[in-house]
């Protein structure tokens, strides 16, 4: 695992404009102890404590402006949009009281974001997106976040100017170049970014086909995450190894019309899919005779 030291993090941001980082023991060390206390006092779901935990790390990192992506739905920590808004406003109020321009996007996670679930598959999808070839929903989420950050940084005066700048960065190849710089700075393999065929590959690919006909009414995203984990794409126990090659590539979204035999998903796996896994996969989808109304990926922007 590659750990970015504080001085390297600051240097990288100065030189290329951004970095990806996570919490370490040196950043808000009390947070881990407080989380353990929340665990034994059954307050893990307390919105004020969630807000303070998240914002303590944002504020400790020295941010002047903060943009939060607060997700709701089956695949998110906040299951309802009302709870997502409560959490978002709690964090915004904390930021404002400390003089930070803090905003939040309320985004839908009642179906998978983008088309892929799995480590190498999602890296490939991210590469496609910065080249302008990504899934519609994921691309819109990224562009909306980019618009807000450009306005927060006083680089663009409004959404339209920001969207033009973002599209120019994608179409010119600048966004892809910046991604490669970030990977290089943080110890990654740039060759895999330039040539995604070098990313880890699963031994087998299996197409899962619909057994029903109608419109996709619901896709249980939590179950898909569990199914990916069972393939090896995540840890069931702390000591488990992760298989970076396995995962799911979705072929349908909510509201899509399908016939029997139409592809629902392409499964990347290293071991034979057992009966229990396959049955669980098919229980992920529900169907309707009538088309369901699509939900915008970004439900609301709060500030």
TrEMBL record:
Catalytic class of the enzyme: transferase
Lineage: superkingdom: Bacteria
EC number, UniProt record: 2.4.2.2
Annotated catalysed reactions: thymidine + phosphate = 2-deoxy-alpha-D-ribose 1-phosphate + thymine; uridine + phosphate = alpha-D-ribose 1-phosphate + uracil; 2'-deoxyuridine + phosphate = 2-deoxy-alpha-D-ribose 1-phosphate + uracil
Keywords carried by this UniProt record: Glycosyltransferase, Transferase
Residues in Pyrimidine nucleoside phosphorylase C-terminal domain copies: 215-288
Any one GO molecular-function label of the UniProt entry: uridine phosphorylase activity
Gene Ontology process terms (BP): pyrimidine nucleobase metabolic process; pyrimidine nucleoside metabolic process
GO CC annotation terms, alphabetical: cytosol
Flavoprotein found in the keyword field: no
InterPro entries: Glycosyl_Trfase_fam3 (IPR000312), Nuc_phospho_transferase (IPR035902), PYNP-like_C_sf (IPR036566), PYNP_C (IPR013102), Thymidine/pyrmidine_PPase (IPR000053)
Function: Catalyzes phosphorolysis of the pyrimidine nucleosides uridine, thymidine and 2'-deoxyuridine with the formation of the corresponding pyrimidine base and ribose-1-phosphate.
Subunit structure of this chain's protein: Homodimer.
Name of protein: Pyrimidine-nucleoside phosphorylase
Lineage, top ranks: Bacteria, Bacillati, Bacillota, Tissierellia, Tissierellales
């Amino acid at each position: 695992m590659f750990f970015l030291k504080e001085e390297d993090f600051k240097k990288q941001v100065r030189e290329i404009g951004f970095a990806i980082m996570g919490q370490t023991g040196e950043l808000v060390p009390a947070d881990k102890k407080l989380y353990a206390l929340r665990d034994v006092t059954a307050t893990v779901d307390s919105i004020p404590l969630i807000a303070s935990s998240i914002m303590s790390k944002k504020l400790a990192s020295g941010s002047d402006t903060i943009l939060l992506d607060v997700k709701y739905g089956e695949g998110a920590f906040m299951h309802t949009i009302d709870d997502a808004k409560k959490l978002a406003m709690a964090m915004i109020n904390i930021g404002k009281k400390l003089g930070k321009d803090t905003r939040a996007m309320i985004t839908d996670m009642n179906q998978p974001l983008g088309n892929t679930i799995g480590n190498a598959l999602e890296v490939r999808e991210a590469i496609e997106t910065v080249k302008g070839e990504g899934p519609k929903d994921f691309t819109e989420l990224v562009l909306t976040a980019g618009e807000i950050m450009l306005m927060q940084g006083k680089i663009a005066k409004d959404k339209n100017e920001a969207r033009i700048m973002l599209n120019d960065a994608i179409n010119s190849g600048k966004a892809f170049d910046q991604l490669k710089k970030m990977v290089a700075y943080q110890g990654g393999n740039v060759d895999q970014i330039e040539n995604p065929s070098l990313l880890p590959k699963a031994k087998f690919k299996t197409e899962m086909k619909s057994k029903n006909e109608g419109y996709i009414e619901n896709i249980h995203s939590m179950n898909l995450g569990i199914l990916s984990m069972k393939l090896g794409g995540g840890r069931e126990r702390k000591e488990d190894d992760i298989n970076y090659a396995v995962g799911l590539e979705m072929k349908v979204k909510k509201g899509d019309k399908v016939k029997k035999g139409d592809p629902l998903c392409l499964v990347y796996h290293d071991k034979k899919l057992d009966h229990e896994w396959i049955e669980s996969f098919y229980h992920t989808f529900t169907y309707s005779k009538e088309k369901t109304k699509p939900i915008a990926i970004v439900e609301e922007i709060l500030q």
